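Tutorial handout. Part one gives the primary structure; part two gives the three-dimensional structure as tokens.
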Amino acid sequence: MSKGNWLKERIPLNIEGISALLFKEEIPVHMKKWLFAMGTTPFILFPLQILTGALLAVYYIPSTEMAYESVRYITEDLQMGFWVRGIHHWGAHLMIISLFLHMMRVFFTHSYRKPREINWIFGFILLFLTLAISFTGYSLTYNQLSFWAATVGTNLIQGVPVIGEFLLRMIRGGEDVGINTLTRFYSLHVWLLPIFITILIGVHIVLIRMHGISIPKGFKKESYDFYPVHMYKIIIVTLFLLSVLSLLAVILPPGLGDKADPLNTPLHIKPEWYFFPVFLFLKWVPLSFGMLITGLAIIGMVFWPFIEPLFSKNEKTRNIISYITGSLVILILIIFTLIQTFTV
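Part two.
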């Protein structure tokens, strides 16, 4: 018996079937335009974040005494450390931007409609987990801005009705941001959140394969093979993203700032830009009311595929409602972000 037959008997994998699954998938012709394939961008960036994060974790020490010093060592003393940290830093920003663009494309092409409602919900969960992993990672630098941003950010949890105080103490590991908070954020950032994101990406892709890629109106129902056309495009985009991230890491490297000082509150505290809209809104209204409205808005968008049909049975009417709703949400997010950006 040949070695190949012996192995097939014990691991009865259909090599041709796997090859077809990986390389012979039929891709709709509209996916040649990268705007319609924007979901691939975070899919490329996430493994890169895992790799650079693992390299940073080798030297990072999650303690209030050594966290800042370990980041300083990586940035200033470790050979190519600034480059790895820069790619990890800017990769997080690009991943969030690409996720927002992907969600916008799905929304305005109505790709969330039956039978893809569940995948829309999984997409939103992935967006929330990405924001969470970015927030915990930003806090790990343990400089003044990240420390107080973590303090203000976690304070907002108090506004959650009924269980706000309990959630705040659970996340912080005490009354204030300290060593327990840092170690919990480190565990979330390095272990739990990446595992959840990986699982959900797998589920997301399986659901896409089950239902097929939706074809927006106006495009021909033609297709092409995943390999080699689409595979080559992914390789080109990967190299392009690496070039952009390397350029940003060199030209605009992430700074160190001052070491966290719990006794010295900065005059102006701001979160990262992707939290600006919510941060500004919660400054304008009472916290509990603001958290309630924010929560309702999020729930509305998450379950929009089920809410939209309630407005009308006419597809054109529902299209108009969706376009107006999506445009208003984007306009509000942009305006709030700009206001907070230029607010001292």
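Part three, for discussion. Residues 14-144+180-267 form a domain with the Cytochrome Bc1 Complex; Chain C fold (CATH 1.20.810.10). The longest strand covers residues 26-28.
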